[in-house]
Amino acid sequence: MAAANYGDFLTTTFDNVVNWSRKFSLFQYPFVTACCGMEYMAAACSHYDIARFGAEIPRFSPRQSDVLWVVGTITHKMSPVLKTIYDQMAEPKWVIAFGACAASGGFYQNYAVLQGIDRLIPVDVYIAGCPPRPEAVLDGLMELQHRIQNDGPTVESGMLNPSMARHREQKLDQLSHYFEIPDKQVLENMQNPKSNRSAMPGYRYSEEHVVVRAHMGYDSPADKRKQEALREES
Amino acid sequence: MTETTTAPESEAPGALTTLLQQQFSDTLLDFHNHRGDETVRIKRGAIVPVCQFLRDDPRCKFELMVDLTAVDYFEQGRDPRFEVVYHFKSLAHGHRLRVKAPVPEDDCRVDSIHELWKAVNWYERECWDMFGIEFTGHPNLTRLLMYEQFEGHPLRKDYPMDRQQPIMELREIDERNQYGRA
């Protein structure tokens, strides 16, 4: 039986019982923004019935919920709101990215849409679909329940639930600095075939925008440091 | 320059177009009429008098300002670059009219018609937000769809479609960098 070692105490059945009770009494926060909300509602209503999994009541308050269902497109304008809601939730908490837009930006590869909420908050389960069928929603919920039950404390002593570890990192990150608007950064997806960048050969936005490697979209902090270094060299 | 249409009788100017030709003969640049849907192109300096006439004159009586938007002809290389398009509907007479006003890029402004129709307030804000066309006299010309920190006007054809300007600090995701995808 899976066991954990917290100092002098071995918790085995206790963890199993706690995880069992957690997974079958999930309080959800449906953060619904777009069309996926329809499928969420369909899954929650009587025909597909999310209530039989114990995840019945939507709590529209982050203080009262365990699972943050991010349902629908999240734009950059909405991203501070999502981050605030996520930060206000108490541990233990999980995040489900519902639908293509929440998982990866969906088919909105443009200036307004955040390309996947995992660029902002850690995600536990991604449910693919546009929108996902209610069966896929229930499958995602069952996957989350499996993770809650089995990603519990393992045989290695002192090891935390990986979901917990990720969420705890975010928490420490949040506590370590007050909310601030970062320095301006500009991202671009240069391999997108629909990008009109190819229609404008030779277009340059500014002398400072030095491209290190042609990858799609996101400039990670490491890439930004490399760009800085290049800029300083030249 | 009138558009050739399938039915030859639809090239003739409709009643509204003739009325405007009589009243504002020097500001009317162009018109076309397709099966009763009339469009006029006027000089942008005459927007407020023309729209006031359209709203108040008993033969026109356009109570409803249906839409205000703009078109960017950058890729076709047209000068003036933008064209602000107004759609009006009359509830009394039941007729509709489309009014276009070309706007050059270097002097990118038009008079606001929010005094005539209050509803045009947000339409003009959206037009400013997306195209950068300034509506002089507008009480609150700020961004509507995009956020305040956004720089640039995204629906212009020379704004790269997928140029993102996030306002939150984003996480680094190793899997995405490994697989080379966004």
Question: Can you describe this structure?
Answer:
Chain A is of the alpha/beta class and 234 residues long. Chain A folds into 2 domains: 4-176, Rossmann fold (3-Layer(aba) Sandwich), CATH 3.40.50.12280; 188-233, no CATH class. Helix content of chain A is 34%, strand content 12%. The model of chain A is unreliable at 152-158, 196-205 and 210-217 (pLDDT under 50). Chain B has helices at residues 15-23, 47-56, 120-131, 174-179, and strands spanning 28-34, 37-42, 64-72, 82-89, 96-103, 109-111, 134-136. Chains A and B meet through α3, β7 and β8 of A and loops of B.
Q: Rounded to an integer, what's the Rg of chain B over CA atoms?
A: 20 Å
What multimeric state do the chains show?
A: heterodimer
What string gives the helices and strands of chain B in order?
HEEHEEEEHEH
* Fraction in helix of chain A: 25-40%
SSE inventory with pairings:
The complex is a heterodimer of chains A (234) and B (182).
Chain A: E1 4-6, E2 9-11, H1 13-23, E3 28-32, H2 36-44, E4 67-71, H3 79-88, E5 94-98, H4 100-104, E6 125-127, H5 134-150, H6 162-176, E7 188-189, E8 216-217, H7 221-233
Chain B: H1 15-23, E1 28-34, E2 37-42, H2 47-56, E3 64-72, E4 82-89, E5 96-103, E6 109-111, H3 120-131, E7 134-136, H4 174-179
Parallel strand pairs in B: 2-5, 6-7
Antiparallel strand pairs in B: 1-2, 3-4, 4-5
